[in-house]
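User: Can you help me understand a structure? I only have the sequence.
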Amino acid sequence: RGEESKVSIEKLAVLASTWNFQNKTLLLQAEGQFSARNFEAAEKLYDDAILSSKKHKFVNEEALANELAGHFYLDTGRKDKSVPYFSQAEEKYREWGAVAKANFCEWLVMDI
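Assistant: Let's start by predicting it. Here is the structure, written out as tokens:
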């Protein structure tokens, strides 16, 4: 089911609106590569998703991509690399007005 959803969003990115769906596609691909333990590809895709979200001014999705990248680095044993991603997620969640999510990311940084 997850793969079907990813394919649907990839189609929308091509057929409907690259601007609106590119960052989502990249983030789903990053998560897929993380799950497949292809960490090098996942790392690049997380950064691409963050840049795409930023470029298209999707603050909430930039926050989410940073948070998921932070978890990726934390889960792969690279705590030091997770901190800037969680910090950026906190900042973007606050900018978006998602205070509880921002506080959670702040707590993660303090706990690392």
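Now, to help you interpret it: The chain has a mean pLDDT of 93. The radius of gyration is 14 Å. Let me know which part you'd like to focus on.
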